[in-house]
Amino acid sequence: MEKSHYITIFACCAVFIVALVIGYGLHTESSNTLHSDQTMHLRINGCDLEIPLSDDGASYDTKTLNVEFPNTFELLNRLSGISVTVNGQKLSTNSTVAVNIAKIAYDEKITLTISDGKDTHTIYIRTLNSGIPAYTAAGQSPYEGHYYITLLTLPVMLKLDQSGEIVYYLCANEYMDAAVNIEDLLSDPDSVSIVMSYWDFKKHVLPNGKIRYSYHEQDPNYNRLNMFGYAGGVRVIMDETYKEIDRIKMAANTGSSVDVVEGHDFYFIDDGHYIISNYEVRLVHNIPAGLKPQPQGSKVVASHLQEVKNGKVLLDWYSTDHAELYALSEAGYNDYANIGSQQPDYVHFNSVEIDPKDGNLICSFRNLSTILKIDRNTGDIIWKLSGKGDEFGLTKYQKTSNQHFVRLTEDGYITIFDNNVSEKKTRILKLKIDEGTKKLADWKEYIVPGHFSLVCGSAINLEKEVFVVGWGLSMEDFATMTEIDFGTQEKLFELTFPNGLNATYRCLKYQ
Fold first, then answer.
1. Per-state percent for the chain, helix, strand, coil, to nearest 5
2. What is the pLDDT of residues 101-131, one digit of tens each?
3. Which of 118, 189, 328, 395 is the most exposed place for a label (fewest CB within 10 A)?
């Protein structure tokens, strides 16, 4: 064979081999499109989630889901040549798909299918965030409504139905590693630093019938006061579909440079009209000499309440403007000489209610063991109930001790979750007072044996002697929440989280 023929054959073979190599390369690139470093950027109910496309079969958590309204899925980035479906619905860039969920549970998932026409991956979204601990629900409430729960130990908040099924949740997985250790809480609460938490999740019905939800979001970037029971942050407002519509901080005023809100309570009157609070270290010079303050001035933690309407401050109330309160502080919180503490938390506001009879405020102050009625126009203290300055003739046994939660009933009673720290026997009180004569008209006490809650807790009087009790930081491994008819001594519903996770801020119920 002539040399030229060999060259021709060799050239043809080389071209064929090159073609094979190129073809193989193209095929490899095409078939491995989903195995590249591409990432899908989703937004689920307003919360962002990144998913590597290479994770075939993987399951992911999302921050929030609900069963009442369609959950929104949005694809934020362009994925060239790739199609995405959510539970069979096509998802395009910058478009929204609505996904209804019948049940939130560990074995229920949302399916994402990603395909480039040759390769297909399936990725799952858990309907129940894996950061939410398993809990036990016993019984079923005969009373309509939902339970609203926030935990001290984890950045989790829940809305549950009458049988304990999750209706809505919010869970900040990114802060799970900074969860509070309950043993540390029990042994030395003041040493615990709360990095991230949700407090005081509640429902509001506005005068026009619209529904709003709110909760306190502690801001981990805020240089908080170094004391347990305070987590500076912002009050988040959501509409009836759990869509965030506002974030509220303290309004500007001449007496404070602190705009962060503290999370103990929030009273929502209408859109743009509310009562908020914070704690603030102040240098004061009005402490009576008999209480041995620093001669040059003492530092204390003031409780600060504001009523704001459309940005205008209607009430700007500071506990430090009322010198008579210093003497009412309980032992351990009144270091006015600043020897052991540079920030004695001498009053510690923890709940507010508007009295429908006259529109004034009824507020609970834990470290005074006192409930105050405050004139909403002038800020003057109208009366004091319980504590050292009690004006209603309560006996020592009837007085509260470091109570956490005070509410009013439609028939004119004051209900109190009394931690009763002095006796280490937590109880619920129901009082009716005669404000004219300053006498106690009726007094009832309800006890579940064995319970002692050091801090936090709540009691909602549903009707007659039926209460929903959130046990706060229980000193024993008891239930997290109990709905109980004290008239028959029958538990109607009870919720229990695992030991070490059963500390709640509040457990509320709205019908």
1. 10, 40, 45
2. 999 999 999 999 999 888 999 999 999 999 9
3. 395
